[in-house]
C-alpha cells in the first residue's frame, strides 16, 4: 500500500495534472463568485436593419425611447422590442402596435417628413434608458457570434444570440421563438 513512496515520479505524474486542473478551476470559479449578479434590465430590438429602410425608426432621446412610423420597409418585417429581466432571466416582448389608417409608402418614394408618425409604446413611457455600452453595475451587452466551431461541441453555452457579461460572469439572453437567427440591436439599460 505504501509503494507510492518508492515511486515519487509516478506520483508526481498523477498529482501534478490533478493540482493544475484544480488550480485552473479555482481561478475561473472564484472570480465568478466575486462578481455580483446583474441589476439592470436590457432593452433591445430584433427585425431591425441598421443599414436599410425600416418601417419603424427607433432611437433614444433624452433617456427615453422614441419610435416613429416611416413607411414600408421592403419586407424586413415589423421590428420586435424585448426587455431582458436580468434578475430572473426572463425575456418579455413589448408589443409595438403600428399606427392605424396610414397609407403605406416606401421610403424611396419621397416620404415627406410630415408623414413620420410617432408610435406610442405605453409600457415604455415612464422608463429611462442609459445607452452606455456598460451598465452602471459593470455588465456589458454583447451580440452572439452566430458561428459554430469545433470547440462549440463541448461548450454548453450557446452564444448564438446575445448575452451580458462582467468579467468572468456571463448571463445568456435566450433568442426569441421562431426560425432563423435574429440579430439584436441594443437600445439601452433600463434605469430605475
Summarize, please:
Helix content is 14%, strand content 29%.
Mean pLDDT: 78
In percent, how helical is the residue content? Answer: 10-25%
Task: Please give the domain count.
Answer: 2
Distance between the termini: 64 Å
Trace the largest sheet across and list its strands. Answer: 5-4-1-11-7
Q: Indicate the multimeric state.
A: single chain
Strand content: 25-35%
Most strands sheet: 5 strands, antiparallel
Which geometry do the CA atoms define? elongated
What does this 3D model show about the protein?
The chain has one helix at residues 8-34, and strands spanning 41-46, 56-61, 64-69, 80-85, 90-94, 117-119, 128-130, 140-143, 162-166, 169-173, 185-191. The chain is of the alpha+beta class and 192 residues long. Residues 146-154 have low confidence and may be disordered. The strands form 3 sheets. The chain has a 5-stranded antiparallel β-sheet with strand order 5-4-1-11-7, with no helix packed on it. It has 1 helix and 11 strands, in the order αβββββββββββ. Helix content is 14%, strand content 29%. The chain is elongated, with a radius of gyration of 24 Å. The protein folds into 2 domains: 3-34; 41-191, no CATH class. The longest helix is centred in the first third of the chain and has 27 residues, at 8-34.
Amino acid at each position: 500500500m505504501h509503494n507510492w513512496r518508492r515511486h515519487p515520479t509516478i506520483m508526481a505524474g498523477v498529482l501534478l495534472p490533478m493540482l493544475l486542473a484544480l488550480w485552473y478551476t479555482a481561478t475561473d470559479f472564484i472570480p465568478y463568485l466575486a462578481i455580483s449578479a446583474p441589476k439592470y434590465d436590457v432593452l433591445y430590438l430584433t427585425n431591425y436593419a441598421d443599414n436599410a429602410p425600416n418601417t419603424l425608426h427607433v432611437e433614444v432621446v433624452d433617456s427615453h425611447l422614441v419610435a416613429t412610423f416611416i413607411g414600408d420597409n421592403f419586407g424586413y418585417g415589423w421590428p420586435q422590442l424585448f426587455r431582458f429581466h436580468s434578475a430572473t432571466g426572463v425575456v418579455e416582448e413589448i408589443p409595438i402596435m403600428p399606427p392605424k389608417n396610414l397609407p403605406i409608402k416606401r421610403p424611396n418614394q419621397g416620404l415627406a417628413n410630415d408623414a413620420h408618425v410617432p408610435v406610442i409604446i405605453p409600457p415604455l413611457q415612464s422608463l429611462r434608458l442609459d445607452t452606455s455600452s456598460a451598465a452602471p453595475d459593470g455588465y456589458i451587452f454583447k451580440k452572439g457570434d452566430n458561428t459554430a466551431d469545433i470547440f462549440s461541441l463541448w461548450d454548453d453555452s450557446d452564444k448564438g444570440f446575445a448575452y451580458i457579461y462582467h468579467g468572468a460572469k456571463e448571463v445568456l439572453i435566450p433568442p426569441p421563438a421562431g426560425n432563423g437567427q435574429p440579430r439584436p440591436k441594443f437600445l439601452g439599460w433600463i434605469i430605475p
